[in-house]
Amino acid sequence: MANSSSGGANVGLAFIVGALVVVVAVLAWFLLGRGGPMRPETPNLNVDINVPAPRLPEAPDRPAPPKLPSPTEPPQVAAPEPKA
Prior knowledge:
The chain crosses the membrane at residues 12-32. This protein is mostly helical. It is 31% helix and 0% strand. The longest helix is centred in the first third of the chain and has 26 residues, at 8-33.
């Protein structure tokens, strides 16, 4: 006689696939049906920070410019003497 199978393996495989479909459907309902994943509430934070601006140290006074003689004529540059 020929070997005949009762199809028990197909029933087990169909049960596993059906369970996976149900799990995916439940996850989709939780994630998409409720508008996405659950987000924690953002706390109402009211922080007021008053920090004085830093001050630079006082700069020393600049020294007075030196007194230079006022030229009345442009400076004369002596020409080199020709060599004989």
